[in-house]
Amino acid sequence: MPLGSFASVGFDSKRQRALPVPWASASMQTFTPDSSIASDVIPSANYGDRNKDRLPDMIVLHYTGMPDVEGAIARLCTAGTDVSAHYIVLEDGRIVQCVPEAKRAWHAGAASWAGEEDINSCSIGIEIVNRGHDWGYPEFPLRQTAAVIALCRGIMLRRKVPPHRVLGHSDVAPSRKKDPGEKFPWHSLANSGVGHWVQPAPIVRGESLKLGTISDDVRGLQQALAKYGYGVPINGKYDTATMEVVTAFQRHFRPARVDGVADHSTLTTLQSLLASFSADTKAVAAR
Ligand SMILES: [Zn+2]
Question: What is the pTM of this model?
Fold first, then answer.
């Protein structure tokens, strides 16, 4: 069957819309969902074993970035696309599991965080249905965000994922990815104990570091970003790679202006994040 053909299974009569299950998935062996709030399983053909049985202690959030949910589910589940995720969260809040958590889903690609590069082996990947920047980038509906929060809370408890290891795809792959993007309500997640976040410092006029700057201040910025976990060169040059990491940082932590310029607000937000990160880590260690 070609990509985009769907079986009629997965229909829940209490809901208005049937889940678009690709034919290929309908014939695959199903499994028991790891999350008790996952309402459906659509098995993906795309997964493998975690490297050296690495236990996942990170969650990576994505948006699907496709015009419709049918195409997104088909892409994530059909053999040959080489992409998948453990979970898909629909706009209406339904949660579909596609890959067992014990397995390595293929969602992060070339990436790095805190010195680790095989992000697929150490993480759980969650795809949030949203058309993304290329297709109008709508707001994330409240019920969808609530479902993401509930799903993450369960995974954090079961897998002992610390708050600061709930990240966006753009955080771990800043040169390639924008998702879930600056409209994603990280503050709402943090209010429910999901992810690490601080109130961003207000944007004010003043000096800033930007593309082309070479200085010790740039080196200090790079060191601070690397300390938080970002994969960034530490060379004192505000090069393209540095600008991309600052852009990723802003999408997640200072979304009011995403321009890759390290202004006072960006630097202050990073410092307060690091200060509270230390406290957060100590609190975790003291448990
Ligand atoms: Zn992604």
Answer: 0.92
